[in-house]
């Protein structure tokens, strides 16, 4: 029986690795939202001193959770945009060009909203200290 050899190009390998990174970001974001949301809105999870306790547990407030979520969304969007850039054909038709521009626009909207969230949290934090 002959063995089948699977050969992938460099760009296919990079896109595959980016897809794995994307999935791990989504999974860690989901876990962080579940545990932090529970601690913020329901009850504290008593795992003080446990060796497997994440460093962020018990230290993230709602404002910090917002920033982490928007940061992860920006990172996921950037990875998706990079995957799109890796697969750009030599010539684009109008529909492909419009889809690319739309992805870039959406990514920039995420970036701008993330910066605005960070600025608002900074202003709110400085205001609390002054009063």
Oligomer: single chain
Q: Percent range for helical residues?
A: over 70%
Major pleated sheet: none
End-to-end Cα distance: 78 Å
Topology:
Layout: H1 10-41, H2 62-86, H3 94-130
Helix pairs in contact: 1-2, 2-3
Concise structural overview:
With 131 residues, this protein is mainly α. The protein has 3 helices and no strands. It is flat, with a radius of gyration of 21 Å.
Description:
With 131 residues, this protein is mainly alpha-helical. It is built from three helices and no strands. The chain has helices at residues 10-41, 62-86, 94-130. The protein is flat and about 60 Å long.
State the main characteristics:
3 helices; about 130 residues
